[in-house]
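User: quick one, fold this
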Amino acid sequence: MLKDLLNWGQRRDLVELIVPRKTFADVILPEKTRRALAETLVQIEKHHLIYDVWGLGERHSTGTGLIFNFAGPPGTGKTICAEAVANLLSKRLYKVRYAELESCWAGETGKNIVSVFREARQQDAVLLFDEADSIASRRFTAMSFGYEREANQAVNILLKELESYDGVVIFATNLCANFDPAFERRVRTHILFEMPGVRERELIWKAQLHPQRTPLADDVDFKALAEAYAVSGGDIKNAVLKAAQMAAGEEGADHRKRIAQRHFERAMQEVLDSKKVMDQTLFVSESGDPAAASAMLAALQGIEARLQRLEDQTDSLSDQVTTTRQEVSVVLEGFSRQVEALYGRLDAVEAGVEERVKTLSGQWESLTARLRRVTFIPLPRWATYLLSALGLATAAGATALGLR
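Assistant:
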């Protein structure tokens, strides 16, 4: 009960339920990636044949799950293909929410991982770890802080769950090098999602638009766009939406507005400029000034020192919380024993009262029976006075004799 009180804020929505609607017809991939996906689907479809009919399941009790790693740059179709796999299998897709999975309480992250796999197993769902390097990163070799021990424990629990899970699990990442080496043995197939070529990019440009309802100007040339911009499908999607916003925001009647080539080119340039901002480095200035670089490095070192102090404070706070929880637990256990003792005394008093009631009831019944056997004779009033007088006379005589 104490644990439930202290974990009152524990979040239960560990996964996002996705009813799959995307199919493999909705994603355009390079031929090499598509062939690798086709081989993956064969493994899924023939799982029963291999492990049940051919008897390999009797020889291998663990590691029979279908665990795949979709690796590649952002925007190359990894998440869409995971949804398409679930759609093909007529299963729901459970996408893990890392913000809910990770907990500030010691040991709770591992319990959340176990809960995710238990729920996916019960619902027979496809489990998706998007940006999986966040949870499956390399373990720390030297554990100096509490968060390092917690991270290693979470990875160990994840590896154990993967070993015993017999369903479909898909990891999606663009930082495959950050994976812990132990995942190599658990993953059945690694599929590389490469950047699309010119032909694929042209098809992706066209696929983002409605074939009948999207108004295009006569100068739109998707092949030229595909040749000019070597980008991912996600970048093309963002550029198309930006271009549509630009065209819609121009002056004039809506029914005359068209998305032109200049809109697509300008939108794509904005997407590329945004990526340049994200790719900037903090260590070298545009002018190449060593002093500026040194100042930045010194600032980063100061930030690192502050982070180290915060980590130490966090570990200390975690220890204090653990100690407090233990102390409160001891106090509650003492209260529990006292309550049990009071209940025991109350039971004893209740038993004594019941026994006394039984005794009094017996005495009352006995007295009632005796009274029933006694015969009372009604006397007139003068007889009552006479008896009273005789009693007084007798008492007076006895008193006189005593005085003598």
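User: anything notable?
Assistant: The first strand starts at residue 15 and ends at 18.
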